């Protein structure tokens, strides 16, 4: 089974976003990763609903929308209407996590929960069976191009154990510092979905880079 690659548009050329979305369409990537930041939950601001709508007009792959925002439940329906196939909210941003998961599912989207580097996987024990995906941040969220935090490999293994223990169907996604060195180790640890931004869009041949990740 090939690894799902979700190129992160945070590292794309914003002045040529349509071109880079079409590049993803033409590659081996099955997903595209869209990071939404509000400047409050993380110290950066990125895409909002209008940009997601614009991406949706051109994207032919599964749209993997990661909400790095405060009170994400308020915006779930808007992002679903904008084209999100999977909506991932942060555990750290949700006062009523189970309610937000239910809300995402009620829109027809798949539901994911993201964990920051300091957050243990054990916090998902009561909701893991309801999730389609868990996103483990392997860098502190907010900026691309960071180095992977080495503890992620053991964290992936602990999450895999929890998923198997609870008989969950959740996929494991990792975002941050994915490159030629870390990607094989992440897949070996149990990762299903690799988010890659700078490594893909900063390479000489992004399509070839995506293909290499897909074949892991």
From TrEMBL:
The gene is rpe. It catalyses: D-ribulose 5-phosphate = D-xylulose 5-phosphate. GO terms for cellular component: cytoplasm. GO terms for molecular function: D-ribulose-phosphate 3-epimerase activity; metal ion binding. Binds 1 divalent metal cation per subunit. Catalyzes the reversible epimerization of D-ribulose 5-phosphate to D-xylulose 5-phosphate. This is Ribulose-phosphate 3-epimerase. It is an enzyme of class 5 (isomerase). Its EC number is 5.1.3.1. Its cofactor is a divalent metal cation; Mn(2+); Zn(2+); Fe(2+).
């Amino acid at each position: 089974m090939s690894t799902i690659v979700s190129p992160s548009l945070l590292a794309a050329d914003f002045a040529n976003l349509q071109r880079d979305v079409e590049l993803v369409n033409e590659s081996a990537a099955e997903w595209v990763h869209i990071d939404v930041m509000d400047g409050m939950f993380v110290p950066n601001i990125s895409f909002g609903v209008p940009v997601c709508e614009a991406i949706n007009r051109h994207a032919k792959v599964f749209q993997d929308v990661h909400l790095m925002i405060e009170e994400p439940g308020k915006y779930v329906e808007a992002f679903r209407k904008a084209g999100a196939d999977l909506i991932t909210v942060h555990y750290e941003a949700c006062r009523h996590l189970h309610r937000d998961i239910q809300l995402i599912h009620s829109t027809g989207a798949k539901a994911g929960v993201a964990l920051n580097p300091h957050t243990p996987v054990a916090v998902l024990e009561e909701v893991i069976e309801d999730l389609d995906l868990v996103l483990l941040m392997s860098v502190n969220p907010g900026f691309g191009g960071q180095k992977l935090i080495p503890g992620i490999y053991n964290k992936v293994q602990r999450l895999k154990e929890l998923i198997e223990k609870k008989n969950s169907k959740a996929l494991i996604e990792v975002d941050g510092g994915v490159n030629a060195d870390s990607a094989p180790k992440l897949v070996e640890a149990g990762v299903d979905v690799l988010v890659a931004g700078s490594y893909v869009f900063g390479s000489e041949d992004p399509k070839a880079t995506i293909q290499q990740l897909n074949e892991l």
